[in-house]
Design brief:
With about 180 residues, the chain is mainly alpha-helical. The protein has a single domain (about 10-170), classed as P-loop containing nucleotide triphosphate hydrolases (Rossmann fold, 3-Layer(aba) Sandwich), CATH 3.40.50. The protein is about 50% helix and about 10% strand. The protein has seven helices and four strands; from the N terminus they run αβααβαβααβα. The chain has helices at about 10-20, 35-45, 50-65, 80-90, 105-115, 125-130, 145-170, and strands at about 25-30, 70-75, 100, 140. The strands form two sheets. A two-stranded parallel ribbon has the order 1-2. The chain has a two-stranded parallel sheet with strand order 3-4. Helix 3 runs parallel beside helix 4 (about 80-90). The longest helix has 24 residues, at about 145-170. The radius of gyration is 17 Å and the shape is globular. The chain starts with 8 loop residues before the first helix and ends in a 6-residue tail after the last helix.
C-alpha cells in the first residue's frame, strides 16, 4: 500500500490483510513502525526525508519481512520515490505489487489533521505529493471510496495479475 500520508495505507492495508488472511494467509506490516528514531524526529520537526534517510528504514523492513512465513505480506509504506520502490522490489522473493491510494490533497490534509498520535505533521503533505513517483504498474485506487469497495478492487486486480502470470507460464515451452 503506497501513497502520501493520510491516504489510508494502514487502514486499508490492515483490512486487505484481514481479507486475504483466510486464503492463502497474509501478514500486515506497518512500515512506520520501522523508521529509526532519527527519521521520526526529522519528520516530526517538519523536515522531509530524503533517500539517504530512507536506507536504514528499508533495511529494517527487509530484515522483518524476510523473516515472515505468510505467503502474502501487505506492507503499508509511502514508497513515494523510485529508490524506495526499487529497494522494495529487490528485497524479497515474493511478487511485489504496488497499490497507490489516491485522494485529493484537501482530503489527505483533513485526514492528517484529524488523526491523533502520529508523528507526521500536515505541513509535510506538499513535499510528499511532490515526491510521489507512481510506478507505471501500480494498481491505482480511489482512497475516498468505501473500504470494502477498495479492497474488492485490489483483490480483483491481484487475481487478474495472478491469472495473467499463470497464462504466461502455461504458454511457455517446457524447459526440462
Amino acid at each position: 500500500m503506497m501513497g502520501p500520508s493520510g491516504s489510508g495505507k494502514s487502514y486499508i492495508g490492515a483490512a486487505l490483510a484481514r481479507d486475504l488472511g483466510t486464503n492463502p494467509g497474509a501478514d500486515f506490516v506497518e512500515g512506520d513502525a520501522f523508521h529509526p528514531p532519527h527519521n521520526i524526529a526529522k519528520m516530526a520537526q517538519g523536515t522531509p526525508l530524503d533517500d539517504s534517510d530512507r536506507a536504514a528504514w528499508i533495511d529494517a523492513l527487509e530484515r522483518h519481512i524476510g523473516g515472515l512465513c505468510a505467503p502474502v505480506v501487505v506492507l503499508a509504506c509511502s514508497a513515494l520515490t523510485t529508490y524506495v520502490q526499487d529497494r522494495l522490489r529487490q528485497m524479497t522473493q515474493r511478487d511485489v505489487h504496488f497499490v497507490l491510494l489516491q485522494a485529493a490533497p484537501g482530503v489527505l490534509a483533513r485526514r492528517m489533521r484529524e488523526r491523533r498520535d502520529h508523528f507526521m505533521p500536515a505541513s509535510l503533505l506538499p513535499s510528499q505529493i511532490a515526491s510521489l513517483s507512481a510506478p507505471r504498474d501500480a494498481i491505482c485506487v480511489d482512497a475516498s471510496a468505501p473500504v470494502a469497495q477498495i479492497t474488492a478492487r485490489i483483490r480483483a486486480e491481484l487475481d487478474r495479475r495472478a491469472q495473467d502470470q499463470r497464462d504466461d507460464k502455461a504458454g511457455q515451452p517446457d524447459q526440462s
